[in-house]
Design goal:
This protein has a single domain, classed as Rossmann fold (3-Layer(aba) Sandwich). 50% of the residues lie in helices and 9% in strands. The chain has 13 helices and five strands. A five-stranded parallel β-sheet has the order 2-1-3-4-5, sandwiched between helices. α7 runs parallel beside α9 and α9 packs parallel to α11. It starts with a helix and ends with a helix.
Amino acid sequence: MHSNRFLNLGILFVVTVCAFAQQLAPPAAQSPSPQMVPTPGIPSTGFAGLDRYRVGRIAVFADDYGQLARYHDANAALAPPAAGETRVVFFGDSITDIWHLDQYFPGKPYINRGIGGQTTPQMLVRFRQDVIDLHPKVVVILAGTNDIAGNTGPMRNEDIEANYQSMAELAHANDIRLVYSSVLPVHNYTEKSKDFFAQRPTARILALNDWLKNYCAKNHIVYLDYFSALVDDKGLLKKDLADDGLHPNDAGYKIMAPLAEKAIAEALK
């Protein structure tokens, strides 16, 4: 009887130890489901919409920071410029990306290489693939607003300026004429514009544009001043030119298109 009692106690002890060991087993010993994989922590920007955007871009930032895949196939299918062709690449972020160049510059060999949300460091990564290797006569660059907002992290104006310089030097080294566009003004006249506006302080836009204008003057680069043509008497983007305070609508692009055409003609002189 005593031996059975000790046997039962021994079995109970083994079962208890095994259960306790299972509780202490490290997660790596299991096969985690996708829901169990933690999301890397990203410091808050103070703007819920921007925070959601940045979390949603983790895969892009990790796997294809410059988003080279976006235009890889289109570039491969693009024929070299024809004899006498004045190929122009419009290079930038969403303001370029959503611009239907064929509608505003009909019949012109203008190529759109804008990617929504991008910042200047991302553009530098793809500058060779999406600009140099396409052999344009001119590149029109519109960038900087997302850097100010912090789409890929905090950026000082000095950092943005350094990236402007790097793209200018790459263009010059490859005999590509350069047009640098001012950062556009923004407004907060509508409910959906308020976050975009708060992320892009007007003082920073003005300071960056002032630096860019002076840099262009010193380095014989054409400066395309969209800002002055789109700003209202309060220093903001005219309300009727952008519903969300940031991205031009048709009325906005109709103002920008002839300015871009004039700047391209100046660069080709």
